[in-house]
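Make up an example, fold above all:
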Amino acid sequence: MALMTRSDFQAGVEDILAVPRGSLKDSDSRDTIESWSSIADVQIVTYLSSELGIEPDAELIETETFGDLVKKLEEMRVLSA
């Protein structure tokens, strides 16, 4: 399993969602980001797999907000400060 900083992960997700760097908030979700579609979900899962070497489980995939996703990844010890 690889390790990535939270800011690097956020930048990767912002690129996937095509939003400005530094603009994604913990409270953001599919409801608040227009470009966060099911296709973006697949891209995020692929990004997690390729960059962190993890296979996302159902609990990770079902997270509602960006902050929830980060919290779960921190619990898995794949994100650092």
Remarks:
- The chain has four helices and two strands.
- Residues 12 and 47 are 8 Å apart (CA to CA).
